């Protein structure tokens, strides 16, 4: 068999992420791959699917909601920096730290919901609040997510990955929630978590109380 014929048989992985260096280090061991940035539109992702013809798509931090028509074309998998069903939505690593629950990483299949797909694998991660900042906590979680992906790539590419439907009490957050904390977070990425989290929880609680008072006035 010619080299070009062998290359055509290699599995293909499309990644949608801004963590291109991290993901490429994992997926390059499993065949061909392409990287699209997290801000890619649904149209851009669809065009790349048509051109590259991937076997699977791995998502980390994608800002677009993937429609059913694309989900039916190729298996999508997402890396989530929390233990689902906790902290669905954007910035899960921040919300799991705020809530003090669900700290870890999840690899799951994607469906039409937001972080509601069946779970392939999870890994709790212990984060010392005394030793870590938000930045270093993110890097630790990211490293664990990459390990989880590498351990499951073979089954994902072969279609043998076993899944477990999400169950139990969960939590979710949206872009409005994210906007409430964004300014403080962006200015304090390297503040020790022992100081960072009490201040951030205070911001969240103030916002929730304000919303509660406004609701009572209506």
Tell me what you see in this structure.
This protein has 218 residues and is an alpha/beta fold. The chain has eight helices and six strands, in the order αβαβαβαβαββααα. The protein has helices at 3-9, 20-27, 42-52, 68-71, 92-99, 134-158, 175-187, 193-217, and strands spanning 12-17, 32-36, 56-60, 76-80, 104-109, 119-124. The longest helix has 25 residues, at 134-158. The N and C termini lie far apart (73 Å).
Total number of helices? 8
Total domains, how many?
A: 1
Structural class by secondary-structure content: alpha/beta
Instruction: Tell me the major beta sheet.
Output: 6 strands, mixed
Helix content: 40-55%
The helix/strand order is HEHEHEHEHEEHHH
Q: How much strand? A: 15-25%
Uncertain regions spanning at least 5 consecutive residues = 3-7
Classified by CATH, the class is Alpha Beta
Average pLDDT value?
93
- Could you tell me how far the N terminus lies from the C terminus, measured between alpha carbons in angstroms? 73 Å
Characteristic key phrases:
218 residues; alpha/beta; Rossmann fold; six-stranded mixed β-sheet; disordered N terminus
Question: What's the layout of helices and strands?
Answer:
Layout: H1 3-9, E1 12-17, H2 20-27, E2 32-36, H3 42-52, E3 56-60, H4 68-71, E4 76-80, H5 92-99, E5 104-109, E6 119-124, H6 134-158, H7 175-187, H8 193-217
Parallel strand pairs: 1-2, 1-3, 3-4
Antiparallel strand pairs: 4-5, 5-6
């Amino acid at each position: 068999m010619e080299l070009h014929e062998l290359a055509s048989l290699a599995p293909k992985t499309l990644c949608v992420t801004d963590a291109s260096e991290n993901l490429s280090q994992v997926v390059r061991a499993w065949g061909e791959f392409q990287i699209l940035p997290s801000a890619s539109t649904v149209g851009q992702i669809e065009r790349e699917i048509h051109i590259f013809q991937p076997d699977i798509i791995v998502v980390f931090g994608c800002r677009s909601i993937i429609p059913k028509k694309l989900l039916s074309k190729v298996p999508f998998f997402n890396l989530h920096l929390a233990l689902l069903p906790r902290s669905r939505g954007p910035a899960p690593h921040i919300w799991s730290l705020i809530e003090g629950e669900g700290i870890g990483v999840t690899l799951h299949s994607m469906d039409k919901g937001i972080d509601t797909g069946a779970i392939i694998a999870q890994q709790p991660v212990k984060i010392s609040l005394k030793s870590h900042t938000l930045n270093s906590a993110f890097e630790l979680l990211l490293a664990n997510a990459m390990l989880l992906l590498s351990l499951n790539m073979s089954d994902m590419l072969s279609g043998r990955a076993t899944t477990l439907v999400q169950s139990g009490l969960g939590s979710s957050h949206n872009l409005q929630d994210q906007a409430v904390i964004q300014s403080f977070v962006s200015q304090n990425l390297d503040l020790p978590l022992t100081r960072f989290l009490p201040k951030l929880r205070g911001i969240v609680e103030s916002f929730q109380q304000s919303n509660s008072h406004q609701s009572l006035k209506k």
